[in-house]
């Protein structure tokens, strides 16, 4: 039976029977196992190409241009046999139908006609281990161990493409910025086309563009503002869609103090005129501290002309500290400005989040205040977890760079909390992961956008994060958002931070090289480590102490020794950590997505080819069921508390979605007592402010579960989920 002929199979029916309660009302979890067994028997085994030996298989794949020969040639064949034998001996099996289905549908290498599989899970694991280890046999074995036990999950672009001859990039998420001139706008549109073509979700900062009505060469009122540029970008992403294989994806960021802010938000409104409506482009706001202050005090806020600000300050608008300079900007008669009530804008933001889930919120001052690297963070990415410094480019009339700035590519991977907590050596596991991600940044050469290439070459940035937190909490009888769950999250991410620093320091020492401008960082002067050398960040409660029993937890003295080593030898990576939504690879890793709570104990996923697939929460059982509360039934302050505790140790950000019900359950939020239970803009304002005060750097989507069982704002970030 061909893969394209799936009419006479039982696994879809068996999977759907999960959603039909048994006579005693229990969830029929055994049906998922039956569906998995049927899928392997009816789909995988008959449609997988068989080879007489490993050598025959690899010879066939290289000869027919399925995989590259060059990376295999870095190893003696006897070692490749040894690595494969180790993987075979681990007897890997998928734990759910969704995990197997997702892997074979999306990740497994197939014949050119798409009718047969050429890979099993251990084959894809082997390709990743051999490719990312770059000829280092010891590292290849370590990587194979981390991957097959699913302690480490590379990003989708890396896991999917590693070793393949005809492949996309290993990185597929990018951040670029536009400055206030036509050459830069043209270059930005070209960059968006090029990056979308190679598989990227692209974040674009538009805050530097002059507002509608600003002058062009002293002709009053000639500028059209950011709206037409947004339309050009949306059309670019629509056009550059990998031959229809996927929709191009982009997000545009704008400062809340930009004069076009209301028009910017209006493009996503339900009643927006089609001339201005933006259907597929995502929206993000950069929000300085000053906005929260003005809204809290119910004051007017001034929106400043980026054109005038740049003339006065000599740098693009994004690079001016609005909070620090606000009073000076207001008093400066050379800067045009508009006035509106801060709370009116706050309400507009809430209204749009109710309608569409947008905009993302990036607390720009929080990001820069916590940034240990010299320079300015001005924007984020399509999933709001990447926050790195950038410098603007200057482009001449020949579309060439008079000054080549730095932009960003996202190089991501995730730890699986459940499995990493079982590791015999937490530190060695993290070291292995960091080295795998380091190979990706070293080999990434995005030449089509020189500022991306330069930013990567100088920073060597990576982003190691986590998935499966809710599963771990449930398995250990902790409710999501409880004090012990918050404490565990803090210790876990403290350990990730410590060991990524150790690994980056080791690599810098081995290579005699640190990231660009390291000497001007808080790492170099040692101040970054002050908070860690001042107190014990280890577990405090007996419950959490028990969870980390047998795991090395660094003391203040250990941090002091690390501080000295970093000050002496440096760090190879400018950035090391970020937590992405990882909605795709979490399935094949049988993990709950990111560090977020689950949406449902039995999740319904719509597949374009076959309809609905049901996915039980990982490790769901009578034992864990009480601890698997839906995100829609959890006070979002608990989620914010979890993310805020992790954020203390993450140098970049965490992609945090807020989950709301259109009718809020009684007693969930005390400010709703005696009020209309319908979700209001006030509810979202309170939660945004709570997140800001807890030190959250970014809010991704607001997803609303409506009374008619629909979900608003449930868009999927298809390009940088990992």
TrEMBL record:
Keyword match Nucleotide-binding: yes
Gene3D superfamilies per the UniProt record, alphabetical: 1.10.1650.20, 3.20.70.20
EC number of the protein: 1.17.4.1
Coiled coil: none
Key words, A-Z: Allosteric enzyme, ATP-binding, Deoxyribonucleotide synthesis, Disulfide bond, Nucleotide-binding, Oxidoreductase
GO molecular function terms noted in the UniProt entry: ATP binding; ribonucleoside-diphosphate reductase activity, thioredoxin disulfide as acceptor
BP terms from Gene Ontology: deoxyribonucleotide biosynthetic process
Positions of transmembrane segments: none
Reaction equation(s) it catalyzes: a 2'-deoxyribonucleoside 5'-diphosphate + [thioredoxin]-disulfide + H2O = a ribonucleoside 5'-diphosphate + [thioredoxin]-dithiol
One of the record's GO cellular component terms: ribonucleoside-diphosphate reductase complex
Family annotation (SUPFAM superfamilies): PFL-like glycyl radical enzymes (SSF51998), R1 subunit of ribonucleotide reductase, N-terminal domain (SSF48168)
Domain Ribonucleotide reductase large subunit stretches: 559-581
Record function comment: Provides the precursors necessary for DNA synthesis. Catalyzes the biosynthesis of deoxyribonucleotides from the corresponding ribonucleotides.
Family statement drawn from the similarity comment of this UniProt entry: Belongs to the ribonucleoside diphosphate reductase large chain family.
The protein, known as: Ribonucleoside-diphosphate reductase
Organism annotation: Fructilactobacillus sanfranciscensis (strain TMW 1.1304) (Lactobacillus sanfranciscensis)
